[in-house]
Amino acid sequence: MQVSIETLNQMGQDDFVGVLGSIFEETPSIAEQVWDERPFVDVFDLHRKMVDIVEQMPLSKQIELINVHPELGSQSKMAAASVQEQASVGFDQISQPMYERIKGLNQTYRQKFGLTFVMAIKGQTRGRVLADFEKRLNNSRDDEIKTALSEIFKIARFRLCDLVD
User: Fold this and answer.
1) What angle (nearest 5°) sits at the alpha carbon of residue 154, between those of residues 151 and 158?
2) Per-residue DSSP letters for 59-112?
3) N or C: at which end does the chain have fewer Cβ atoms within 10 angstroms?
4) Active site residue 69
5) What dihedral angle (degrees, nearest 10) is formed by the CA atoms of 65, 79, 16, 146?
6) What is the pLDDT of residues 54-86, one digit of tens each?
7) What is the rounded CA–CA span in Å between residue 8 and residue 134?
8) Which one of 47, 69, 136, 159 is the catalytic residue?
């Protein structure tokens, strides 16, 4: 179901959060806060204001946001949007050897950075995702925090553009 920016601008906070609360993985507080910024000119204005909220969060909250994202190839419960995004590059149907490779990458990444690897995978190939995963293991923790947040902002933009007419 798509909703217009005009409709969003007129919604009460509870309905607004009900519609946009999952744009940022398991963090409806961002939608709660951005509601006060209405009216929005368009979806890009809404996105920018949501990003501003995340950028103003303390580092500890930004790391929490990174870490609520599911690991790639995870077989655990995750938000419907994440399931769809991972399925779009075939992470829902992987062989056991591929699962073990991804599981190892996730463990190495988490051990090195203390973070969940986050990448906006919409429109990517599994090969490209895995290559970026391996490449990013060479980054510093600070660079990975910045990269993960940038990827989260892309994911949010994709989700908003799919949702807002």
Assistant:
1) 140
2) HHHHHHHHHTSPPTT--S---HHHHHHHHTTTTTS--HHHHHHHHHHHHHHHHH
3) N
4) yes
5) 30
6) 999 999 999 999 999 988 876 666 667 776 777
7) 40
8) 69
The residue type of 145 is: I
136 within 8 A of 147, measured Cβ to Cβ: yes
pLDDT of 135 > 80? The answer is yes
DSSP 8-state symbol, 26: T
Query: What is the greatest pairwise CA distance in the chain?
Result: 50
Q: Which of 1-5, 9-13, 28-32, 154-158 has the lowest mean pLDDT?
A: 1-5
CA gap 142, 148 in Å, rounded: 10
Residues spanned by the domain of 73: 5-163
pLDDT of residue 93: 79
The two tokens of residue 104 are 């190892």
What are the tokens at 100? 């073990």
- For residue 51, give both structure tokens: 């990003």
Q: Which residues pair with 164 in a beta bridge?
A: 3
Helices (H) and strands (E) in the chain, counts: 9, 0
Number of domains observed in the structure of the chain: 1
Q: What is the pLDDT of residues 99-113, one digit of tens each?
A: 899 999 999 999 999
